[in-house]
Amino acid sequence: MAKSSLPGFDIMTLGQIYDWLDERLGVKEVVAFAKKKVVPEHAYSFWYYWGGMSLFFFLVQLVSGILLLVYYRPGEGAYDSVRQLVYEIDFGWLIRSAHSWAANLMIFAVFVHMFSAFFMKAYRAPREFGWWTGLGLLGLVTVFGFSGYLLPMDELAFFATKVGLEIPKNMPGMRPIIENIVQGGPDVSSVTIQRFFALHVVVLPLLFLPLLTFHLWLVMKHGNAVPPSEEAKPAPQRRTVPFFPNFFIKDLAMWLIALNVLAILASLYPWQLGVQADPLMPAPEGIHPEWYFMNQFELLKILGRILPGMAGEIGGVLVFTLGGVLWGLIPLFDTSSRFGSRARIATWFGFMVIAGLIGLTLLGYYEVAATQS
After folding, report:
1. What domains, with CATH codes, occur in the chain?
2. CA–CA dist 284, 162 (Å, integer)
3. Does residue 288 contact residue 368 with C-beta atoms inside 8 Å?
4. Which of 305, 284, 282, 283 is nearest to 363 (CA)?
5. H or E element: which one contains 187?
6. Which of 51, 180, 219, 298 could form a disulfide with 364 if both were Cys (CB 3.0 to 4.6 A apart)?
């Protein structure tokens, strides 16, 4: 052990630090496990990185959210605190912009990760719980986005939240629950901000972190799934790479790319703060929820034109509820390990879901643009 210039203190070498940590934390066991784990290598390996990128954007959300907590004041002073953060605090606009862009990029990455897992048949045994926990994380991520969207309390956030809350209100028996528990009254107000804030920074993280830990443990336990085309190959023809350090280094490179994309978006296209919301004013033309709820919003509008009264809105909610249930139960339907008839039905079902979500979203934005022109 090297001697320091200060009496009574010894300087430890890197090797000695490693040995000191290993004796107390079992570092060698963790490294050995990481080296033992392998990742399949094939033409579709690119899709494995989206789970890691989802985790990266969540970490950005966590760090930037803690920084925003220093200045944000929920309730009546919500808008003024965000205005101060954006226009008066050094680099406050950048932190808020990074937080907002990372939220949208995380939701996008989770959707890509979900569909890539679906088409690789990663829901088949023994990975059913990996699929279900992933869907649970997707649901929590969208609620994260929705609850955080109101917090600036500008005009767009206020009226978009009102529109978004109308969707669950149309479900039988949900209106009293939404108004009394979620909103804290008959309309969106400062009480709603306080409840959304508590949901966003306390309740959702307490639910999300244990579920994320369980999901990651399942991935480490069962490994990465391979697509049916690779599964059909003889075992000697299947290629793998060690998770550590080979795949881990590539994963970090994808994190670096994601960081650069986020930095460009946050700095060149900063997240705007609109005028303060006035609940007494009518909603602006073309108001709509965020892009990840646009498909549901558009389906409600379409069915509302076809079916009379509340039947259209209730029908839209039922269609999405049924679709979500079928999507969650797909592991119990496609149970074959080969590309049989049920697997083909499941694949076409996935294509229909993607086409429906993208088509409804684009149609919704087209109608919004037509309304504003």
Report:
1. 1-36 (no CATH), 43-290 (1.20.810.10)
2. 12
3. yes
4. 305
5. none
6. 298
Query: Which pLDDT score is estimated for 9?
Result: 45
Type of residue numbered 38: V
Q: What is the CA radius of gyration of the chain?
A: 24
Question: In terms of C-beta density within 10 A (0-12 exposed, 13-18 middle, 19 or more buried), how is residue 23 classed?
Answer: exposed
Is 310's pLDDT higher than 80?
Answer: no
Within the chain, strands assigned E span 2-3, 10-11, 38-41, 239-242
Give the pLDDT score at 6. Answer: 47
State how far the alpha carbon of 45 is from the alpha carbons of 17, 40, 273, in Å: 36, 7, 39
Per DSSP, the three-state class of 271 is coil
Q: How does 244-266 read in b/e, with b if 16+ C-beta sit within 10 Å? A: beebbebbeebbeebeeebeebb
CA atoms within 13 A on the CB side of 23: 6
pTM > 0.85: yes or no: yes
Highest mean pLDDT among 39-43, 136-140, 184-188, 272-276: 136-140
